[in-house]
Every structure is written in C-alpha cells, then in structure tokens.
C-alpha cells in the first residue's frame, strides 16, 4: 500500500496544471481571475486559507481576495491591516526588497527561528495556521502581490513535493498575475485604496506619540528604539548611556505600560493603533487605557 505522502493529492500533476491554465487566462483582467486561480490550485492540493494581498509602498496592505472562515476574518484580515503586517517577513521581503520575488515557505523566509520571532509571538500564533507557502510577485518598484496559501492546524504541513510543484508553476503564476494586474490596473486604481491615515501613512507619527502621555523623555527614547527591534547594547550606544542605565529606564517603562517583554510591548502598540486613528494628534495609549465612562443612573 503506498504511503500517504506519495498519494496523487501530494504529487500534483504539472500536465493537469498546464491544461487548467486556459481557465485562468480567460479571466485575466476581471474579478474572477484570483478566485479561478485559487480554485485551480485547490484542485491540486489542500489550501485552507487562500489570500491574495496587494502590497504598496506607503500604503497599508489591501486584501484583494480571500477564502477564510468567518471566525478567522478578524485576526487574519482586520488585525493584519491594523498593524500585524509590520513584522510580516513576506511584507518586509516584498515591499522592503529584503528577498527576491519567488515562492517561499514562511519558515524559510523568516530571518530567524520563526516561532521565536516577534511576528509569531505578537500576531501569527493567534492564527489557525499550521503552515504557509506564498508567492511574492513584483508589479513595479513600489508594489507587489502576495499570494498566500495557508493550511489550518487540522491539516498537515505542505509536503516537499507540493512545495516543488508550486515552485515549478511559479513562472506561470507570476506572468499571469502581472498580466492581470496591468489589465485590471491594480496598482493605480483610484477609490480602492485603504484610508491609512492612522495606520500606515502616519505610522511614524504613531511611533512618535506612542507612550508620550505616560513616559519620561528618556523612557520614550528607549521605547522608540525597542519598537524598532534594537537590543539593549545597541540602544544604549545610540542613546549614549550605559546598558545598566538603559535597563533601569526599560524596567520603569515596562511597569508604567504593564508589559513584561519586548513582544508584549509590540502587541500593545499594535492594539493601540486603532485609537490613533480616532485622535491622530494624541498618544494612542491615552484613549486605549482610558476607563469607559460609568453609565448614568438608571441605565444598564
């Protein structure tokens, strides 16, 4: 009896893929293009959470198409747009040019041990996802497509044969996606761009204001460097203070913000971003930590 790892589902047929290309080509330039592409991929392998993202420099990511269970939309789509993407190695690779376009498993593209990364601890661990393989497709110098193929925690990880298949079809995925992007004018289309006033366009302003209402000037300096991922020694060097002094400022800052690690600090920043959009000139923590008003007498 053949092993399950060598079943046809694990060994997608390139000839069948080539035959299915006509179905995808027929929809270049229209709204059915990505749904059709995803459907064809799902004929060759299990994909539980397919997502197509448009990454553009100085704009928040835009979800072009996705198939996600209702209970997962908040964390996989909304929270990602609200700041989860900032540490995503696929986003950093695509828009910051940290990796060549191609197809990658997330554990391959992550700069360090993935489950030890800030991205995993502050965001990715909350997803119902056991594995992810994605295409990074360059559209121009300031934009790319991110075609993410995820498996949930009830599904086994992608096999090496499946990864090899996805690598083999990368040229056709890339060429068709670039053709569709040009015909649909994805990069420049007006009216479809996300209002990123409080999330991406002004993210540097949010960094500047974050914690201002609670911290001293020096604690705020330490906070800014930590949010940028600098370690203790490098932060101390940049500020011209000793590592011991920096640790003292960090301890005081942690107490005031009620966090105990750099990962919790970054999670706090992400969670507070929605409050920055409400009051873009104020410290987002001021409203984030504000106690809700007590109901008036006679109200529930």
From TrEMBL:
<dbReference type="InterPro" id="IPR036388">
    <property type="entry name" value="WH-like_DNA-bd_sf"/>
</dbReference>
<dbReference type="GO" id="GO:0006355">
    <property type="term" value="P:regulation of DNA-templated transcription"/>
</dbReference>
<dbReference type="InterPro" id="IPR000792">
    <property type="entry name" value="Tscrpt_reg_LuxR_C"/>
</dbReference>
<dbReference type="Pfam" id="PF00196">
    <property type="entry name" value="GerE"/>
</dbReference>
<feature type="domain" description="HTH luxR-type">
    <location>
        <begin position="208"/>
        <end position="273"/>
    </location>
</feature>
<keyword id="KW-0804">Transcription</keyword>
<dbReference type="InterPro" id="IPR016032">
    <property type="entry name" value="Sig_transdc_resp-reg_C-effctor"/>
</dbReference>
<keyword id="KW-0238">DNA-binding</keyword>
<dbReference type="GO" id="GO:0003677">
    <property type="term" value="F:DNA binding"/>
</dbReference>
<protein>
    <submittedName>
        <fullName>DNA-binding CsgD family transcriptional regulator</fullName>
    </submittedName>
</protein>
<feature type="region of interest" description="Disordered">
    <location>
        <begin position="279"/>
        <end position="300"/>
    </location>
</feature>
<keyword id="KW-0805">Transcription regulation</keyword>
């Amino acid at each position: 009896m053949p092993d399950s790892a060598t079943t046809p589902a694990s060994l997608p047929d390139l000839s069948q893929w080539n035959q299915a290309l006509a179905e995808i080509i027929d929809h270049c330039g229209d709204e059915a293009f990505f749904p059709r592409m995803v459907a064809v991929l799902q004929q060759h392998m299990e994909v539980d959470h397919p997502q197509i993202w448009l990454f553009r420099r100085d704009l928040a990511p835009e979800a072009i198409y996705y198939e996600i269970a209702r209970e997962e939309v908040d964390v996989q789509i909304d929270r990602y747009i609200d700041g989860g993407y900032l540490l995503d190695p696929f986003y950093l690779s695509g828009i910051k040019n940290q990796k060549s376009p191609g197809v990658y498993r997330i554990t391959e593209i992550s700069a360090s041990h993935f489950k030890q990364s800030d991205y995993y601890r502050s965001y990715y661990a909350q997803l119902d996802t056991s594995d992810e393989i994605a295409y990074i497709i360059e559209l121009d110098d300031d934009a790319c497509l991110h075609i993410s193929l995820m498996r949930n925690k009830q599904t086994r990880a992608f096999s090496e044969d499946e990864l090899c298949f996805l690598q083999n079809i990368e040229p056709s995925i890339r060429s068709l996606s670039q053709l569709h992007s040009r015909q649909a004018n994805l990069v420049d289309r007006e009216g479809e761009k996300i209002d990123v006033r409080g999330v991406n366009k002004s993210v540097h302003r949010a960094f500047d204001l974050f914690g201002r209402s609670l911290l001293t000037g020096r604690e705020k300096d330490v906070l800014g460097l930590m949010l940028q991922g600098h370690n203790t020694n490098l932060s101390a060097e940049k500020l011209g203070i000793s590592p011991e002094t920096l640790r003292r400022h960090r301890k005081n800052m942690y107490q005031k913000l009620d966090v105990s690690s750099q990962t919790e600090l970054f999670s706090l920043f992400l969670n507070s971003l929605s409050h920055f959009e409400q009051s873009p000139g104020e410290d987002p923590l001021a409203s984030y930590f504000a106690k809700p008003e007590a109901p008036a007498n006679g109200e529930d």
